[in-house]
Amino acid sequence: MQRFKNKNALITGGTNGMGFATAQQFITEGGSAIITGRTEETVRVAVEKLGASARGIVSNAGKMEDVFALKELIKKQTPSIDLLFVNAGYGKFASLEDADEFHFDELFNMLVKGTFFTVQQTLPLLKEGSCIVLNTSVVTNMAIPNFTVYTAAKAAVQSFIKSFAAENTAKGIRVNGISPGYIKTNGFNNTGLSKDQIEGAIQSIVPTIPFKRFGEPSEIAHAVLFLASSEASYIHGAELIVDAGVSTIG
């Protein structure tokens, strides 16, 4: 199936996990993908794996100078974008008592400011009929200890879905969100937990998931690309939850 033949995607945080899987599937279905990542090495390795239809940009969603440089860097690669998947980010967790200003600013700069200004800066490159997909999280529907700042940041991103949709309707640009549950990514790696602590956390989480497993990055990719496809042409301002039901029936 070539749903994205002659189409271009920009996928932030595309060097691994959900972003990489989405780029991979977009390319498989005929498109070309530009991915961003925080280091030259991770971008280079990912582009090599994705093949000739992939290009890379070193850009950190938490650094505004990188975000404000994105538009010109993208224009060197393509004149327009058909899919913008704002996916870059990771989680760090702390209790209400232990969270400090650095923790708060790190998450809000990356997830909230990064998302807002990535969309703002790339909007001129999005043509009529294109699609924006924001990566939110099911944590906004749950109350999880130590997730307070992360949840608040993701709730802000969630609020962007409707407001961005309202502002872009006249331009013919659809805006939706994808809300992943527990997915097999390297997201735990930035939390500061040891390998044993990560494994312990995973083992404690799995029994709470209705399907008793973490989701695959490819399962998120398929959902994102459904939202980006013509099959979702009447879906706008919506959030698609992909979490095996953990936030509703878990």
Key descriptive features of the protein:
Rossmann fold; single chain; seven-stranded parallel β-sheet; 250 residues; alpha/beta
Count of individual helical segments:
7
What is the tally of beta strands? Answer: 7
Q: Major beta sheet, specifics?
A: 7 strands, parallel
Q: What is Rg?
A: 17 Å
What does this protein look like?
With 250 residues, this protein is of the alpha/beta class. The chain has a single domain (8-242), classed as NAD(P)-binding Rossmann-like Domain (Rossmann fold), CATH 3.40.50.720. It has helices at residues 17-28, 40-50, 64-75, 101-122, 148-168, 195-205, 217-228, and strands at 8-11, 32-37, 54-58, 81-86, 126-135, 174-180, 239-242. It has a 7-stranded parallel β-sheet, with helices on both faces. The termini are far apart. The mean pLDDT is 93.
